[in-house]
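seq/struct pair 1
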Amino acid sequence: MKKQAILSHDAPAPIGPYSQATRVGNWIFISGQIPIDPATGEMIAGGVAAQTKQVLQNLQAVLTAVGLNLDSIVKTTIYMTDLTMFAEMNEVYAHYFHPPYPARATVQVSALPKGAQVEIEAIAYAGG
């Protein structure tokens, strides 16, 4: 299958040698998004709730570029620098997804790019 890079100008530009997302057939593999405001290119102010909201908006922007939305996501991986903030992140996350919820893994890491507290990567399905 052919691999196609996806680029949304409404999501933060990649900060390294990677694509915002890659499409292979009906599958969309979205790179980890951190809480960067795409308009300014800067990290947003605020705690993990505000950061989670921005991350999910960035994921939505990438999906919009291919005519999809968050309901197309089948799997997420969430990286957090402090799992004691899990409930706060989870409360925001719950407002963006509907049953059937995506499969998910959440892991604590020692650091994330640009000092982010949360990063989320996703896999979406674009088939019927």
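seq/struct pair 2
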Amino acid sequence: MPDPNPAALDFLLTRRSRPAKTLKSPGPDRAALDVILTAAARTPDHGKLEPWRFIVLQGDALTRLGDVAEARATERALEPEMVAKARVQFDDSPLAVAVIEVQKSSEKIPELEQTYSAGAVCLALLNAALASGWGANWLSGWVSHDRAFMERALGLQPHERVAGFIHIGTEGPKPPERPRPDLNAITTWVDA
């Protein structure tokens, strides 16, 4: 017989990311963040490759990333709204964890499975932060895919890329519930 964990299931059924723009200081301290990162690192990882790592960004580091994002957006001649959006992600955040996908050479584990594991780490980190009582949001955007930004802002190597930025802070007002997928529309049952 299963041994259910009703509190965990209730959390998963009601979890809700908090808009990044509503997150305020303070963010978690190092001891609290260590627990959150430890929970995230329990993500499924075929072959025990650990195809991801964390970069914790706070204080002046976030200001610097905002500067690099603005400069890179200007170099790319992006629309002013895109420049502002990229910058504000870092300027307004009390703390962010960059989840870095680190592709590892493996004869058994395809690169795509390593990418899936990095995405799963992002969700595990987001959920661990929310379960710990913090507000949190997973953001990506063009900065997560721009090679020059990744190298200048985070010092990433060619085999690394940003899976996402998990912003964590004290949550503001809870956002209204949003529509969820129609389970019947997205589920196929196969019996034979």
